[in-house]
Amino acid sequence: MTDAVPGHQLITRKRWLALYVLCLGDLMIVLDSSIVNVALPSIQSDLGFSQSALAWVVNAYLLTFGGFLLLSGRLGDLLGNKRVFQGGVVSFTIASVACGLAPSSELLVVGRAIQGLGGAAVSAVALSLIMGLFTDPAERAKAMGFFGFVMSGGGAVGVLLGGVLTGLFSWHWIFLVNVPVGIGVWLAAKRILPEDEVVPDAARLDVPGAVLITGALMLSVYAIVGGNEAGWTSARTIALLGSSVVLILVFLHREARVANPLVPLRLFTLRNVAISQIVGVLWAGAMFAWFFLAALYLQLVLSYSALEVGLAFIPTSVVMAYCSLKLSDRVVMRFGIRKPLTAGLLLAAASLALFARAPVDGHFLTDVLPSMLLLGAGAGIAFNPVLLAAMGDVEPHESGLASGVVNTSFMMGGALGLAVFVSLSTSRESSLLADGSSHVEALNGGLQLAFAAGAVAALAAAVIGGAFLRPKPMRDLDTHGEPVEAAEAA
Q1: pTM for the complete prediction?
Q2: pLDDT, tens only, 269-300
Q3: Separation CA 351–CA 356 (nearest Å)
Q4: Which of 24, 248, 394, 448 has its CA 20 to 30 A from that of 15?
Q5: Domain spans, the chain
Q6: Is 137 helix (H, G, I), strand (E, B) or coil?
Q7: Is 481 left (phi over 0), alpha (psi -120 to 50) or beta?
Q8: Helix (DSSP H) and strand (DSSP E) numbers for the chain
Q9: What does the alpha-carbon distance between residue 104 and residue 116 come to, in Å, rounded to a whole number?
Q10: For the domain 4-205+262-485, what is the CATH code?
């Protein structure tokens, strides 16, 4: 008996070490979606990007990242999550070197596209690996709190790190900082992550289905990120979105009939999976918009430097870290999934609503900090239950695919939400300029409308999640080893 206790402690310690490795690997990926934003003016100046071409520093990453999430998740189920995770870390790290040392704009864009491929592989399977490592409800809730902070807090940390590295050194370091981290993650993953358990007969990939859905996702991302520039009713945007819809319909037709589908359609008949995707799309759209628009408000309206913008996001990061790592698992185990999810999303909606009234001559303490604190608390509390609800009904052998679906909904929701809210902001800004407002007043008026729209999206996510999710009751073990229910609203 005494020998069993140290053995159990060793296994437990190894599980938590594995969690830290997975979270660090995914943090690299999440950071890269926001760390670039603050450095874009420096990149444009050094490499001679035109204004329109500069968007491809972001778009190339989003295109491959969003397009390959589902395929990467399925490959994790078929080839092994550990193998796919390590492969993604390698490709992302090599691409980071290429981006950091890129001598031309073309090579930087190519490097960003390869980063997106690696990022898709890492993100698609990390959540699945965590679900497999932690089967005890209390431990799983705590582990998901860590992972939730990485996914939600990574955006704030990215803005902070991007501002610090660009302000103190140069934009090259926003990419090169990934190299030692990537090497460390790969070495630790090789040693600590459990070996893959792959069923030989299941190792069949629906190649036509993979081509169809990857093409559909890439076309839709391309249409969304270019919608504001080309116009949402332009022939290009309509043709791209129409082509994406056609590919999705063909994909669904195939998946309903093929023996080994890439995405078993019954996955979407699971109530909590389907509702979680809707909540995820709305929530990601609001959160992506908050990070992007808040940085714009600080830089273009309040005239903050890149370093000052990064430092301004510290309160969000600190509060989000506390709520994710210390509070989220406790409230989930005590109140279940729906109540914390609804409360967190309502706090996020309040945060966006506060920014919707931020004036041109705003002050940090009165007009910025309250919103920063509310968003940190809301995201820190809500992300854990969103992930638990999305993954709770999925069979273990399809957890990689489900992880890819979850990440795809967040990615597509973020890209679509950001595009729509920026479009609203631009339209409002143009209208105010035509009415005689100054440039700064018009810009701020546009941002206020976008923040208000984001608040509506977060509020809708809270209402839908609270009203329609029916998660399984959270269970814990009593002192006799018998399962007992934690609270969950009926």
Answers
A1: 0.76
A2: 778 888 888 898 898 888 878 887 888 899 88
A3: 9
A4: 394
A5: 4-205+262-485
A6: helix
A7: left
A8: 21, 2
A9: 19
A10: 1.20.1250.20
